[in-house]
Design brief:
With 394 residues, this protein is of the alpha/beta class. It has 2 domains: 123 residues, Alpha-Beta Complex (Aspartate Aminotransferase, domain 1), CATH 3.90.1150; 229 residues, Aspartate Aminotransferase, domain 2 (3-Layer(aba) Sandwich), CATH 3.40.640.10. It is 41% helix and 14% strand. A 7-stranded mixed beta sheet has the order 2-10-9-8-7-3-4, sandwiched between helices. A 4-stranded antiparallel beta sheet has the order 11-12-15-14, with helices on one face. Strands 1-13 form a two-stranded parallel ribbon. 49% of the residues are buried.
Length: 394
């Protein structure tokens, strides 16, 4: 695919020898699973990191006011959310933040609500802190996902529930939640004394022309009950630099979160963490927009190829993320069996939907944030593997 932008997303980069978790696979296998892009990060970020590297000393690092301004300006300009800089806290990652917050705001055996199918590590953050996962499954009708607000209300009303983890936009279904739905969550949370952790790490990877709605921007109620976890790491492919932020408008809640992340020692940046974030938000906008177009062209390519070759397979329409959520319910067996078969017979490594909760038992998750040549290879393997699986089970 010829790339018309000034950035070369078609370039295939050999990641062998870099200890890349995604590419820790056997020769000939093609990994399209974990949420990790196969694009080099924005050259503006690489330049900033290179300048920092040239200094040659990598000692303890403070969080500067410029770091806070970079976040605040980006969310104001790109997402319409005015964030008070004092309400921003540095953290090494969204999941460390969530785990620390769960640990601080709950006691063992309490409930934490998640809306399944959802990012599998949420389960770990809850269970590892001795709490109960309380699933409020999303409604899946006619190939479209929505929230079951009646079920959510009932589960928030449980006196053992005081925390909810919202995925906004939603991973893996690629849904951008609308303002009305988010406002209802905020109202229910306030009524039932529930705090909402909003994981918004995928918010910058939306379809061109589409915008997500920050939970804290919806109403004063949503703002008051919310803890928002954000980062440049997914959008700019810099997860290994361990850089993220937490936005907590309420000062009492903010103090608790501040205590949590400092107690767990996940509140200090490494020498490159703030440098990369500042460069991303100050200079990375053009790269991000070009990447979004490329990724959503890949999404369209895969969707069309599957519809033509395997009409019984359905790609759930996605408004956000570079992750396709593929309905394979027309085939026998659950997604674990199908994913295992694909890897064994074609070398294609995708994520099985079961790990995102029982509601994902008949879906696969496919990462298309890669050069088109790899995407095309993946589609060929996927079609060949699913065809062989279908014929074998017939």
């Amino acid at each position: 695919m010829a790339n018309s932008s000034v950035y070369d997303f078609d370039k295939v980069i050999d990641r062998s020898g870099t200890d890349a978790a995604k590419w820790d696979v056997a020769p000939g296998e093609l990994p399209m699973w974990v949420a990790d892009m196969d694009f080099a990060t924005a050259p503006e970020i690489l330049e900033a990191l290179s300048e920092r590297l040239d200094n040659g000393i990598f000692g303890y690092t403070d969080v500067s006011d410029r770091w806070k301004s970079a976040y605040a300006d980006w969310w104001s300009n790109r997402h319409g959310l005015s964030m008070e800089k004092d309400a921003l806290l540095f953290v090494t990652g969204v999941i460390p933040a969530i785990s620390s917050i769960v640990r601080k705001l709950t006691t063992p055996n309490e409930n934490v609500i998640i809306q399944t199918p959802v990012y599998n590590i949420f389960f770990n953050s809850i269970k590892n802190n001795g709490c109960r996962v309380l699933e409020s499954p999303l409604v899946y009708e006619n190939g479209v996902y929505s929230m079951d607000l009646a079920d959510l209300e009932a589960k928030m009303a449980d006196p053992q529930t005081n925390l909810m983890i919202l995925c906004n936009p939603h991973n893996p279904v690629g849904k951008i939640w609308d303002r009305t739905t988010l406002a209802k969550i905020g109202d229910l949370a306030k009524e039932n004394h529930v705090t909402v952790i909003s994981d918004e790490i995928h918010c910058d990877i939306t379809a061109p022309g589409r915008e997500y709605v920050p939970f804290a921007s919806v109403s004063e109620t949503c703002k008051a009950v919310s803890i928002t976890c954000i980062a440049p790491t997914k959008a700019f492919n810099i997860a290994g630099l361990q850089t993220a932020a937490i936005y907590v408008p309420d000062p009492v809640l903010r103090h608790k979160v501040w205590r949590a992340i400092n107690t767990d020692e996940v509140a200090e940046p490494n020498a490159f963490a703030t440098v990369a974030a500042i460069a991303a938000f100050e200079k990375g906008g053009a790269w991000l927009d070009a990447m979004r177009k490329y990724v959503f062209d890949n999404r369209a390519y895969v969707t069309e190829a599957l519809a033509k070759a395997l009409p019984e397979v359905y790609v759930v329409p996605g408004e956000a993320t570079y992750l396709l959520w593929i309905d394979v319910s027309a085939y026998p067996g659950d997604s674990r069996e199908i994913a295992s078969y694909l890897r064994k017979t074609t070398g294609l490594f995708v994520s099985n939907g079961v790990q995102y909760g029982a509601a994902g038992a008949h879906h696969l998750r496919l990462n298309v944030a890669c050069p088109r040549v790899l995407c095309e290879d993946g589609v060929k393997r996927l079609i060949a593997g699913l065809t062989a699986y279908r014929n074998e089970k017939a």
